[in-house]
Design a protein that fits this description.
This protein is an alpha/beta fold. The chain is 43% helix and 16% strand. An eight-stranded parallel β-barrel has the order 1-2-3-4-5-6-7-8, surrounded by five helices. Helix 4 links the parallel strand 3 and strand 4. Helix 2 packs parallel to helix 3 and helix 4 runs parallel beside helix 5.
Length: 272
């Protein structure tokens, strides 16, 4: 599998887009994921992303979107976020990427006041609509499994149930290895996503909280998870997710360390 990087590592360290793309290639990555908001960038930034990625020979695999408002109880908020996700899918198509990495929200008010089933059904209906739109563009939606207690998709069980409820060929799962570890998901459980997994995120954590650390900085035992991922023959890529570096001024060293550690693990497990 190809090894990529989500460019938020550079953005959140205060480095500009072109610099981040150039360094991603220089360090050795095969591909890149783009973290941006199509409502916040202009045509010049969109063209810069395409131009720099083409210049560096870095194909774009995924565009990341956090859309917690899709399940808001206000219809006007739902409509806005659906339109925003539509703009994201347009950007995926424009950048010739493969998928939209979609992060859904959490149950509001601790699953009180509004029935959890209502929020679940709202999310289902919204993602179905987006799936039809994505299919028309020839792109996919990869849903993120989050490790938080009230997230709509926070386990293999909820992911599989949601994918069953959607029942759409344009929608699949993203597997984040540290999220699997934090939710105490055993590696063999990943086999339940055979034929449904579209993309993979790779980062480390302390075993207690979401971390997005370079592999080896935390406690995750990556080898059993990577062995399962290898056997699933996922068509996408494994993308390193590094956010909120504790030393932004040393972001190059932080990313290089993550690349080298991940590259060793992928070679060890026959993924690269």
């Amino acid at each position: 599998m190809r090894l990529g990087l989500i460019n938020s590592a550079w953005v959140q360290a205060g480095r500009d887009t072109a610099y981040g793309i150039r360094m991603t290639k220089e360090i050795g990555f095969d591909c890149i994921d783009i973290f941006t908001d199509p409502l916040d960038i202009d045509v010049r930034e969109r063209q810069l992303i395409r131009r720099e990625c083409a210049k560096q020979g870095l194909p774009i695999v995924s565009v990341c979107c956090v859309a917690v408002g899709l399940t808001d109880f206000n219809r006007s908020v739902q409509r806005f976020h659906r339109q925003r996700c539509q703009a994201y899918l347009d950007l995926v198509y424009e950048l010739e990427a493969h998928n939209l990495l979609l992060v859904l929200g959490e149950y509001i008010w601790e699953q009180q006041v509004i029935a959890p089933t209502e929020q679940w059904q709202t999310a289902r209906d919204q993602v179905r609509w987006l799936a039809d739109y994505a299919e028309g563009l020839g792109v996919k939606i990869a849903l993120e499994l989050e490790p938080f207690r009230l997230s709509l998709l926070n386990s293999i069980d909820t992911m599989c149930a949601f994918l069953d409820a959607i029942g759409h060929p344009a929608v699949g799962a993203n597997m984040d290895i540290s999220h699997m570890y934090l939710t105490h998901t055993p590696p063999e459980a990943l086999s339940r996503l055979r034929g449904r997994a579209l993309h993979v995120h790779m980062s480390d954590c302390d075993g207690k909280k979401h971390g997005d650390l370079p592999p080896g900085r935390g406690v995750v035992d990556f080898v059993p998870y990577l062995a399962q991922i290898r056997d699933l023959h996922i068509p996408g890529a494994i993308s390193i997710e590094l956010e909120y570096s504790p030393e932004p001024e040393r972001i190059v060293e932080w990313v290089r360390e993550a690349y080298q550690a991940a590259d060793r693990l992928l070679r060890h497990t026959g993924l690269r």
